[in-house]
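Q: Here's a chain of 344 amino acids. Please give me its 3D structure as tokens.
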Amino acid sequence: MSKIRWLFALTASLSLLAGAGVRAMDVPLPAPAVAVPAHEATPVPAAPVAAPIAGVHEASPLPGANYLVAPDDVLQFSVWGEQQMQGLYLQVTPEGTINAPVVGTIPAAGRTVSQIKDDIAHKFVELDYLRDPIVQLTLYSVHKMRVRVLGQVQRPGLQLMRDGDRVDQAIADAGSFIPDTAGLAKTTITRIGESHPINVDLAAFYNGGDLSQNIVLKEGDSIYIPEDTENRFYVMGYVQQPRMFPLKPTTTVTEAVSQAGGPIKRGSLGRTVVIRKAQDGKPAERIPVDVAKILETGDTTRDIRLQPGDVVLVPETKSPDIGTIGQVLNALFNVSYLSKIGFF
């Protein structure tokens, strides 16, 4: 081979080697290991880990650093550099503890998150598991206070409340009270550790603005709104809807007849009578009220306000006997009530 051809072949070989070197350098190197933040890591299932409670975290803002952890709170736990301790959820037990991986049971209730975190880190060192552990512990969600609302509400049952919530909030969450039947003035709260129910006058709160009746609730409280069996009146006789009605402080005889749908064809508004039950040793009263005259003249001074237990009777156009009255009463009214209040 001539010297020129030998030099040409050597040059070509060097060029190929140079090109191969460049291509090798173009191949991307593996990315360096980077610690994955706790909130981006996929939780690793483990025995002591409780699943987060859906929707609780978004329900209300979390308290500050001075918050004392309580049972049913959920804490998010990670240890830097430990792949199987990333983004775990630890729920505080009813006994007030958490069960953290490796270190086991740690007291939690009544302590701040910072205090619990320091305790866990100390346990890692004490067990000679990690020399200088970097523990991340944050409050993920706070517990919900359990309160029962029973009696005359739209949706009686268990309500999940926040610390600091009051009676009105629990009743609102239960769909509010039933206006026609709720005995608001005789509401009671049964509280754990209390030997007697707490009396709450919700009529004074809702109708009179008495804020002292709207007390702060505690875990396990049971609110009971009874049925109002006293503040009622009855309309009977020759009316469209003879039955019982809830009594308001301003209800008058003419309003009562109107609520009952007015008279039927043979009803005599001019001979309407209010039957007021016997009390304080006095016999039952029969108070005539000419509803027809009141409606004709607009003279409301002839009208009277009703009292609890009053019976508004619209008779027939001609005087009936007792047997006729009994035939008019429908199943919604008990004849024995008239006897009880002294009508017969």
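Q: Can you summarize the key feature?
A: Residues 1-8, 14-59, 321-325, 327-333 have pLDDT under 50 and may be disordered.
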